[in-house]
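Regression test case RT-17, inverse folding.

Input:
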């Protein structure tokens, strides 16, 4: 694996990040689970326009401070250290190949166990479901971590519109299959298209987000434009990008990484420092943007969202259902 070289900072990107910071006021819990449960926890956190920033990474950001425990990772890292095999297997190739992924026209088909299956155009989706900002921790199974200020809406709002039946126990998601727009699909590195799945209660959980933007801007292609899933208490691979199909199912769907290596990647993939990946520890994580020599930080159960989601798994053996 190539060692990560911090990307050159594009001045346009700096402006994006600065704009975002200057226009932000107080960001609360968006009325979601009630601010009380969240503030001070690792979930949605309250930020104010105030000050700080590490001079080596955001020299122009000397006037910003996160008052909560979640300080967003600089835009350049979130957008230049990606996993998106459809746009290349390197960490920086998705950004380099972003121009291949044309995101218009785009539509999403909703099918399976629901009363009102249908197809929604991306413009319609953006109109129907106004976006809110959610600052979430992100933890890749490869043991790196960051904090991402997403824009998006709860997946539950979209799903409810199609009226899932009582037979809908799971939701399956698929990425676009189009080797012209996704040149990585010309090679057999993964079985295409990329597929992911959630249990219905996970999909309906208020933390589960459809992201359509980043730092107050449209989602960059390399982060899964025009819309991707974000499940902050699960390892990164569950957060499937560039979705074109959502299907309600009775049976548990197989997800791409589980098909490929079932002993390494389970269906649940809840962040769990107590259950190691067969080839490496999951106890600690490297924080992107802090430099490769910085001390790793401990990984938290459910990536810090245990208070909100541990109840979904009560009584389950999380070693077996990893
Ligand atoms: N379609 C698709 N979705 C994907 C992937 C992928 O290769 N293809 N990689 C996954 C993995 S392993 C991770 S860690 C996250 C990375 O998201 P980010 O690049 O926005 O940080 O996307 C996930 N979603
Ligand atoms: Mo990942």
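Golden output:
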């Amino acid at each position: 694996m190539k060692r990560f070289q911090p990307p050159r900072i594009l001045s346009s990107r700096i402006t994006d990040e600065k704009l975002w910071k200057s226009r932000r006021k107080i960001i609360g819990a968006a009325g979601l689970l009630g601010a009380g449960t969240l503030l001070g926890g690792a979930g949605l956190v309250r930020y104010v326009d105030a000050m700080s920033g590490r001079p080596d990474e955001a020299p122009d950001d000397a006037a910003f401070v996160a008052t909560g425990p979640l300080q967003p990772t600089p835009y350049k890292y979130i957008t230049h250290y990606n996993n998106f095999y459809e746009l290349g297997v390197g960490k920086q190739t998705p950004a380099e190949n972003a121009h291949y992924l044309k995101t218009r026209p785009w539509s999403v088909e909703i099918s399976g166990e629901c009363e009102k299956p249908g197809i929604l155009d991306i413009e319609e989706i953006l109109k129907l479901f106004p976006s809110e900002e959610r600052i979430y921790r992100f933890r890749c199974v490869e043991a790196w971590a960051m904090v991402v200020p997403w824009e998006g809406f709860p997946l539950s709002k979209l799903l409810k519109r199609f009226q899932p039946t009582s037979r809908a126990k799971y939701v399956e998601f698929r990425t676009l299959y189009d080797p012209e727009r996704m040149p990585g699909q010309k090679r057999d590195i993964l079985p295409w298209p990329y597929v992911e799945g959630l249990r219905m209660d996970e999909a309906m959980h208020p933390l589960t987000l459809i992201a359509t933007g980043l730092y107050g801007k449209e989602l960059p292609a390399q982060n899964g434009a025009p819309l991707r899933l974000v499940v902050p208490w699960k390892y990164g691979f569950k957060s499937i990008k560039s979705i074109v199909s959502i299907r309600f199912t009775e049976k548990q769907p197989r997800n791409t990484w589980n098909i490929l290596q079932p002993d390494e990647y389970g269906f649940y993939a809840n962040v769990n420092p107590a259950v190691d990946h067969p080839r490496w520890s999951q106890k600690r994580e490297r924080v992107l943007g802090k430099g490769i020599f910085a001390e790793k930080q401990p990984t938290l159960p459910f990536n810090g969202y245990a208070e909100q989601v541990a109840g979904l798994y009560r009584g389950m053996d999380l070693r077996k259902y990893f």
